Amino acid sequence: MAEEDKHMLFGKYEMGRLLGKGTFAKVYHGKNIVSGESVAIKVINKDKVKKEVMMEQIKREISVMRLARHPNVVELKEVMATKTKIFFMMEYVKGGELFAKVAKGKMSEDLARKYFQQLISAVDFCHSRGVSHRDLKPENLLLDENEDLKISDFGLSALPEHLRNDGLLHTQCGTPAYVAPEVLRKKGYDGAKADTWSCGVILYVLLAGFLPFQDENLMKMYRKIFKAEFEFPPWFSTDAKRLISRLLIPDPERRITIPAIMRLPWFRKDLTQTTSFAMEEPAEIEKTEEDINDSARKSTKTTSPKFFNAFEFISSMSSGFDFSSLFENTRKSGSMFTSKCSASGIMEKIEGVGNAMNFKVSKLKDFKVRLQGKFEGRKGRLAVTAEVYEVAAEVAVVEFSKSAGDTLEYVKFCQEDVRPALKDIVWTWQGDNVVGNCNGNKTEGDEMTVEV
Fold this sequence. Notes:
Elements: E1 8-9, E2 13-21, E3 25-32, E4 38-45, H1 46-51, H2 55-67, E5 76-81, E6 85-91, H3 98-103, H4 109-128, E7 141-143, E8 149-151, H5 181-184, H6 191-208, H7 218-227, H8 238-247, H9 258-263, H10 265-268, H11 289-293, E9 306-307, H12 310-317, E10 335-339, H13 343-356, E11 360-365, E12 368-377, E13 380-392, E14 395-404, H14 407-421, E15 428-429, E16 434-435, E17 443-444
Parallel strand pairs: 9-13
Antiparallel strand pairs: 1-2, 2-3, 3-4, 4-6, 5-6, 7-8, 10-14, 10-15, 11-12, 12-13, 13-14, 16-17
């Protein structure tokens, strides 16, 4: 191997010095040789994670980081793999851990408030996407060159599919000093409420310079956490004490919520509006099974839509049966319809609808488009992705999914805007019994046949 190729990855990244290492991964400084942008390259040894049955955790971290695109969350730019290693290409955050600042002692209330505002903004955004971090602590909060906070390490995070039938999480995880009492009790917990407790501990630590709950004996520390036994240093302001007292309530149902935190005058002081929702998403971070279990793929230009597995198609369009558990690549529920129109005709129609609604229309792939609204909603600007799949020679499936914004606004968009505007090309909507054709003529209960 030539000397200049020794530290090159996939002909795209130059790998530099070691930044840190853990049990299963090492993190290096890197550079995108095309853009010149600095990146952090997390290198994971496949054999080690397979031995520890951690492959699912790796896939979960990828899924979560794709969802949590926010200025105060470390950005995952790309995932690549070889037969022996997985590479996370991430945003390079060069300011180090917030923990290093805390280790030097307490900080001013204004500075602590700034970091807390950014933390709450990012956590609120994650929760709006169904993500619970579950290991929030100063060691997992990084600072960039502008002294802005970035949440990292989503390895222990949870998604809605990790909830049990009782609607709660049951995995006991996190760092004891920052973990909510309901997590320690092993009786099921709400991940968002548990994150809120951790935010309370972090705020206390920033203002005090030490932990609210600490004891050399772990069981004694747990008892303090269960009862929320802690004392405020004399320099805490009345408003800060009041907020922390409402955050560190052992009963999660009585604990203050993030929307309530955001309304408090103390929190809103000098608040800078986040630009989280205006962030441009990359074309797409690949996260397929091939990325994790095989070598990196080379991009190829497509001339026809992706093939939609016929069994998956039947189960998706049926309101009475769900075969999704039989397939590894299960689809998240979205708005889906079939059409007998050509894929190019469908794409042209969708793009026309987006333009008519004054949405920004971005083509991600030949048969995939992103529509983004121009106005801020409850959770920022609504962004919707539409993709066309081929089922058979004369049948296409079109799937809409929300990639940013508020879920209720998305549902309203689908029901009141998309459905009426696309009626001329829809054959049948998912779960509906009424079908039509390209000309909008509808009949009751037409038989749908897919060749398998």
